[in-house]
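Researcher: Structure for this, please.
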Amino acid sequence: MAAVPTRQSDRLIEKAEKEKEQKKEEERLARVAALVAEGLPADGSLEFRFNTQPIPSQAYQVRTKDVYRTADGVFLYSWAVEAFWDFRNFHPGQIVMSTSPYPQNDPSAKFNEVAGAGPCAATNAGPVGAKRRYSVVLWTTTRGLFVVPLFTLNGGNSFATMHEERIRDFVTLTTVSGVDPQYTEWAGHSIIMNLNPDLEGDLNPCCFADLASARSITSREYLQEDIGSLDGDEYLRFLSLYKIRSNEWLKQSFDKFESGVTFNDDRIVQPGSVFDNRAEYDNYENWQKLMADKKFHGMFQSKKAKDRYKEAMKKKPSKGPGAGSTSTKGPGGNKGPKPGTGGGGTGKPKSKPALGHKTTLDTYK
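Model: Predicted structure, token format:
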């Protein structure tokens, strides 16, 4: 049976409302008392102004919230609300220290069941750790810095546990008195870094830059800017190594499209005017069409790409006599062999879909 709602008397309702109003008044009086104790106007008539000012001899600025009395405009006090770096004061090849996050597995988290392999912990199910890590500035952006982090590889990770392709992600950095690389010969001589003399006793004279872990630092992140620097010629070598490795990664990406072309800077599409018509599929070069038509496993394609695929399937020539195969039942209802024509055998194998696809129309259902 449904519960029968109860009714409160008007007296109880009025009492609850009075207690509520009384509590509000007590809170208001407490706020007024706090303002009076600080020498502020009791009516709370204050004006708040935000102000951004540079800190002398530093690479960052501080934004403050200034409080003025509304009645006479008298300044009362201010406090800092945020600090942010002015990256125009940074230079390429500068070595900085910033907070670098990394994911962790949580043993108590829920697990993903993997067919044939049992439960497997999901990396994104656990907490995220962070540590202060040194990095080399590749370039500055309107948002912050783009840097390559540095590692000593003295912990669990070492070159002995890495495959050859992964080792190519690393570049050795040493001080002038450092030794030449033993594992990163692909990069040639080690990059010479110059460390802050006040910090040399605390820093390792040999470390490894992980080109595959380059990341951005935004203007409001923790940062220490006086760690060290690369000379201009050493920076040029370091930047060139990053570009060489990036081109290798881009080539691998191009190869996955099976377009028959190798990536180079000539393949970069320059932006056109928004007042011109958008480039259409029919005007593409053949390798561009192959890239547009490529369907990866689990990929979401546009309606235009799906329609092109369906049209291509419709235009395929139908199978001639004997090209297909049918099943015939043998004695006892079991299926017998599938006879073919034109020389016998089991008929022609099923051809691949057009335009480089490896899927069927069922993919789009």
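Researcher: Any notable elements?
Model: The chain has five helices and 14 strands. The chain has three domains: 39-85, 90-103+126-251, 257-312+351-365.
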